[in-house]
UniProtKB/TrEMBL annotation:
Domain RecA family profile, residue spans: 71-217
HAMAP family tied to this protein: RadA_bact
SUPFAM superfamilies the UniProt entry points to: P-loop containing nucleoside triphosphate hydrolases (SSF52540), Ribosomal protein S5 domain 2-like (SSF54211)
Pfam families: AAA_25 (PF13481), ChlI (PF13541), Zn_ribbon_LapB (PF18073)
Motif position, RadA KNRFG motif: 254-258
UniProt note: domains: The middle region has homology to RecA with ATPase motifs including the RadA KNRFG motif, while the C-terminus is homologous to Lon protease.
Family: Belongs to the RecA family. RadA subfamily.
The protein's name in its UniProt record: DNA repair protein RadA
Organism: Winogradskyella marincola
Region of interest (Lon-protease-like), residue spans: 353-454
NCBIfam families reported in the protein's UniProt record: sms
SMART domains the UniProt entry points to: AAA
Record InterPro entries: AAA+_ATPase, DNA_repair_RadA, P-loop_NTPase, RecA_ATP-bd, Ribosomal_Su5_D2-typ_SF, Ribsml_uS5_D2-typ_fold_subgr, Rubredoxin_2
Positions that bind ATP: 100-107
Amino acid sequence: MAKVKTTFFCQNCGSQYAKWQGQCTSCKAWNTIAEEVIQKPEKSSWKTATSTSASKRASKPLKINEIDTAQEARLDMQDAEFNRVLGGGMVQGSLTLLGGEPGIGKSTLLLQVALRLPYKTLYVSGEESQKQIKMRAERINPKENNCYILTETKTQNIFKQIEDVAPDLVVIDSIQTLHSDYIESSAGSISQIKECTTELIKFAKETATPVLLIGHITKDGHIAGPKILEHMVDTVLQFEGDRNHVFRILRAHKNRFGSTNELGIYEMQGSGLREVSNPSEILISEKDGELSGNAVAATLEGLRPLMIEVQALVSTAVYGTPQRSATGFNAKRLNMLLAVLEKRAGFRLGAKDVFLNITGGITVDDPAIDLAVVAAILSSNEDVALPSDYCFAAEVGLSGEIRPVQRVEQRILEAEKLGFSTIFVSKYNKIALKNTLIKIQLISKIEDVVNFIV
Ligand code: TYD
Ligand code: MG
């Protein structure tokens, strides 16, 4: 093989170096310089035979109304949650990257999707043997059987098998295990990942076959490899959740064909992942009687309303410095809400430990949860249980004002559907709903909440 010419680039500012060094001299960032291939010995293509076809396929400029979108037909993934996150199914010829912590269920999700599809699918694994995949598949127990399993890591071999099988969907588990003959560096290195992704993009676009890639993430939560991987693919999905909880959330971080606000929820069971179509019911814990420190928030995830339970525990600090801890909620925001309670409502929480937990192991960043957090803290502090059919949807401002939230009507209707008797919302929300069964309690200041609870 001819010698591959490489050079070193700073991944932060793009400066080029002849050899590796610890710090980039131009942007001063440490450890950002990585080796990259600048000249390949041969022209690489997903299929060498078609490399000459590029000129034939060269596209002509078209007016926007002349562009035929019929080919953008989407593949129905037979999974309502997955379809929703993708924006209504998978676009032909698109590349989707699924990232997530190890053991969260990425392989399970994509194998399950591949096994269920009525189309011909090819599941390529560089991580597990065919037997291991079979064992996993047996747990999932699929109905259809159009899925071919291949254990291979060399892209050229994968493309050869693809030509034989002619699948309608290709799943690659994972991009970090692939390697291409055209690059000498080891699998998982920046230049290999880049090269393999480029080959896969070429393949996907030329044959209009959608490709699903699994990507590992680094310990700080980013997809391993160069940032460019995320720029190259059409869609970046993230599969997240707490490994100790059964719920898993599928989110789109980037989507060229749909919104990134949508969310898919799954439950990990002994027999694979189950779609959760009505998440509110399971996120609210079952309990006998009313307990202090619990409050329900009407939040929105994407377009979907979601009722979640907030639990707070306020107790006298045993040690000098009171502890503050929040699971599933921003700790800084918790401190801010505590300061507001202290200053505007006169609660002396400065010497108390405060623990906050969002049940179900999910993380929310909807500001509409603020009021439920305040209510849960007050309820625990006063040791008064809130009626279990109360719920809250409002943001709390720094001066203790209760602020309006977006799409409040949708939240009210969801709360009504689930049998809540009263919802607390901001007085400044414009609500056009009439004759609701649920009582809409309008409040404007934090003191109003205190009057209801204490
Ligand atoms: P896996 O898909 O291998 O994770 P990843 O590919 O993201 O690393 O998921 C592994 C976990 O899922 C494992 O801990 C066992 C669990 N699991 C179930 O609970 N039920 C099942 O049916 C399957 C297949 C896996
Ligand atoms: Mg896996």
